[in-house]
Write a structure and sequence with these properties.
Blueprint: H1 15-21, E1 31-35, H2 44-55, E2 70-77, E3 80-87, E4 101-103, H3 108-121, E5 141-142, E6 145-146, H4 149-153, H5 179-188, H6 203-216, H7 222-234, H8 245-249, E7 255-256, E8 259-260, E9 277-279, H9 280-288, H10 298-307, E10 312-313, E11 320-321, E12 326-330, E13 333-341, E14 346-352, E15 357-363, H11 370-384
Antiparallel strand pairs: 1-3, 2-3, 2-15, 4-9, 5-6, 7-8, 10-11, 11-12, 12-13, 13-14, 14-15
């Protein structure tokens, strides 16, 4: 079980017909779409009709193995900005909207990479600094080489996908994991390769990165660090680990094999690997701060530039990795992407800073594949650019 993935058809009715089927009023904003203006290259109506049959094979509102019960497609482009809800937030429920809360899984890692870049930008951290001071009882080394923050951010630390001393609850591999558990594992683990020698996906490494950054900032927990450095500056009210009563009321039910899945539970020292919840509205605003000319601050703009700088190759292809982002060169453009998974949700984001275009896919179905979400996300991005 992962709490994040590795890197990276026909609704027979239009979206408007779908809304009628589920009795969604305009005020519920099942398709909260805003055209960019009179010169927009994509009109919302035809776009909805184009999108619906692409989403259809991935969604079954009544619940079905291999599919999501609902999906939100959030788009920001010079031609179009809005959210499109399909299926249901739970069997028998309404379609998702831009304010529906989803477990975003490993999209959390993008935020963790941004936190690292912000710390480098303000001088409170260096990509090349070792993690040893955060683990006074001992940290893994090989051949005298310590793990650095860059190694963690590029999945090149040599750490395994998960620590070997987990004590999970069903469906939640990292539940109940404590700081003492992490300290014990880090003090005893022998790296199989030297840090930086090999790129291999590690949820543990991303969790350790969030943990080290939190300790360096003297933050109460990972969520407090996210709130102070990312959520507050961008006014993201729903980028959280712990849910308020209002957020819980807006939380979609996750599903696996067509059955309700348990809520995500990740021990605090591993939160940076996949613990965040969020909405389509907030995830879109987060990515818009990464786009050229997007709403951002000087510090965030500089940090995003660091995040999307190619650092190391990803095995098995031509992609490279930035700070927790997969980077692909497509027709002279750089596409930044990340997928995610929790016990009941599958997610994906892709954006092109130069094209000022971002797409976020949030689904309440664990069984929707990375490949299917990547294909849909890139089709949407090409359509609205």
């Amino acid at each position: 079980m992962r709490f994040g993935s590795t890197h990276g058809a026909a609704l027979l009715v239009s979206v408007c017909s779908l809304l009628a089927m589920v009795s969604c009023s305009p005020a519920q904003a099942c398709c909260d779409v805003k055209d960019a203006g009179p010169d927009a290259g994509v009109d919302a109506g035809p776009f909805r009709q184009w999108l619906a049959p692409l989403v259809a094979p991935l969604v079954e509102p009544s619940g079905a193995p291999g599919k999501a019960t609902g999906m939100l497609v959030a788009v920001s482009a010079p031609t179009l900005r809005g959210t499109f809800g399909f299926g249901a937030t739970r069997v028998g429920g309404p379609p998702p909207t831009g304010e529906t809360v989803f477990e975003v899984g490993s999209l959390t890692k993008v935020v963790t990479g941004l936190l690292l870049a912000l710390a480098v930008e303000d001088g409170s951290a260096s990509l090349t600094e070792p993690i040893d001071p955060a683990f006074p009882a001992g940290a893994p080394r090989r051949g005298g080489t310590s793990i650095t923050l860059l190694d963690l951010a590029t999945h090149s630390s040599g750490l395994p996908n998960y620590p070997g001393n987990l004590h999970p609850t069903p469906g939640n591999p990292a539940a109940g994991y404590t700081e003492q558990d992490l300290a014990d594992f880090m003090a005893s683990y022998a790296l199989p390769v030297a840090p930086g020698a090999r790129t291999q996906y590690s949820n543990l490494g991303s969790g350790v990165l969030g943990y080290v950054l939190r300790k360096k900032a003297n933050a109460r927990d990972y969520e407090a660090l996210v709130q102070g450095r990312v959520a507050a500056p961008l006014q993201l009210k729903d980028l959280v680990v712990q849910l308020s009563a209002d957020q819980r009321a807006r939380l979609a039910q996750g599903y696996a094999e067509g059955r309700p899945a348990p809520e995500l539970d990740i021990g605090e020292p591993l939160s940076g690997g996949g613990a965040l919840r969020s909405t389509g509205d907030d995830m879109l605003r987060l990515l818009e701060s990464a786009l050229e000319g997007g709403p951002t601050t000087p510090a965030l703009a500089a940090a995003w530039a660091r995040v999307r700088e190619p650092r190391r190759p990803i095995p098995g292809g031509t992609s490279r990795i930035g700070l927790q982002l997969s980077l692909d060169s497509v027709n002279g453009d750089t596409l930044c992407a990340k997928s995610g998974e929790t016990p009941g949700f599958s997610t994906y984001l892709v954006f092109s800073p130069a094209r000022r275009t971002a797409v976020v896919l949030l689904s309440n179905g664990k069984d929707v594949s990375d490949a299917a979400l990547e294909q849909l996300g890139r089709q949407v991005l090409e359509r609205v650019q």
